[in-house]
Amino acid sequence: RCSRQLLNERALLPCIGAERDCAMLPGSRRVYQQRGRLAAPAVAATALTAAVFLAALHVVAFAPSRPGGGGSSGGAVARAAAVGMQDQGGMLAELKLEGEAKAWAEKHFVDERAMLAKAPFKIPPAQLIIMAKRFLAWNRGFAGTAGDMLAENFEFVGPVVGPLSRQKYLDQIKGFDFYSVFPDANFEMYDFRVDPFEPNRVWFTSRGHGTNSGSSDSPLFKKATGKSYVNPPQACSVRFNDDGTVNQYTIGYVMDRRVGNTGGLGGLYGILWAVGKAFPFPEARPHQPSLRMRFFNKIGDIVATSNAKRVESKPPRK
């Protein structure tokens, strides 16, 4: 089951730009036509909610794997290259920019290799990515104690929920098996990369889909609705201590709220909205602009239109 949650990106990429749907691909699933363009139905690394929803994972126990050692600045550059990070010189040469555009690129595009060399983390980027995938696979997409990687200083953080301490997080997820409620769930995790600003942090994107075809003892899922969710792409991350234990798991930060059928919501809130079981408070429902925001937006439109007309009416500079 874990292998199908991590997307086979090399197999998927040749399908992008095709005029037809792609067939089923090993390690992934089909890409389908959506609003005139190809898009993969999305999912989120599923999140926790309030104490109302006490959930738990059925974790699979595996032996732990801990990292070793450090390295020099030169080693950090080599390790960055191993995970596909391009140096700034190579990037600028590839872009073939001149003048102001080149100067802008030199200032604003981050030199990832150089940053990792200045502040190398004890664990090499390529190994850190492997460790993040192991952690997720052992715990079936969630944070958990399987693999003995959950640090004592662990925190769970979502856009609305958290931060939750290790014990509070573990207390709130007891007693519920997500996959019994959504048996066909696929998290579709991909694009794993190490953050050059935080070299102990692995970011990844999660899309996915699932159908509420199962039930559980939870009041929310006593009866299956048969409805499916298609989540938007969401930014997620796993952050590590020097000893290789995980001290933070973040999920559910929506990257494009127009994708999917969750009303732009991420994590469990989005899933519950899509299957008709949304919580009765504003944070668990699609965003609705307030009256004040609509008023200020209207004023802004009027001012912007007026400014544009004034600029257009000015005579051109000689």
* Strand-residue proportion: 15-25%
Question: Widest sheet: strand order?
Answer: 4-3-10-9-6-5
Main sheet makeup: 6 strands, mixed
- Uncertain residue ranges: 16-73
Tell the overall outline: globular
Count the strands? 10
Mean pLDDT: 77
Rg measurement, Å: 23 Å
* Helix/sheet category: alpha+beta
| Cα distance spanning the termini | 68 Å
The helicity comes to 25-40%
SSE succession: HEEHHHHHEEHHEEEEEEHH
Output the number of helix runs.
10
Description of the molecule:
The structure is a single chain. With 318 residues, this protein is of the alpha+beta class. Helices cover 30% and strands 16% of the residues. It has ten helices and ten strands. The chain has helices at residues 9-12, 73-82, 88-95, 99-108, 112-118, 125-138, 166-172, 178-181, 267-274, 291-313, and strands spanning 32-34, 37-39, 150-157, 164-165, 189-194, 201-206, 209-211, 228-230, 234-240, 246-254. The strands form three sheets. Strands 4-3-10-9-6-5 form a six-stranded mixed beta sheet, covered by helices on one side. Strand 3 (150-157) and strand 4 (164-165) form a beta hairpin. Helix 2 (73-82) packs antiparallel against helix 5. It is globular, with a radius of gyration of 23 Å. The N and C termini lie far apart (68 Å). The relative contact order is 0.16. Residues 16-73 have low confidence and may be disordered.
